[in-house]
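pls design
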């Protein structure tokens, strides 16, 4: 079974950078950034409990 590379959109990359700057400003580590291959959304984990999902259009929401 072939494996396909899911590439994030420009809007996702920009929002990921902005969120990274925000969380590191508060001295929270960025623990995980991963693209969900099923949906194309970025999974972003900062600190121990800040879970964010970034959609392909650049909008985001707290998951937890």
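designed seq:
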């Amino acid at each position: 079974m072939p494996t396909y590379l899911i590439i994030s959109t420009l809007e996702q990359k920009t929002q990921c950078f902005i969120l990274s700057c925000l969380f590191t400003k508060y001295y929270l580590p960025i623990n995980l950034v991963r693209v969900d291959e099923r949906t194309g959304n970025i999974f972003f984990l900062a600190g121990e409990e800040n879970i964010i999902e970034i959609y392909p259009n650049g909008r985001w929401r707290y998951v937890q």
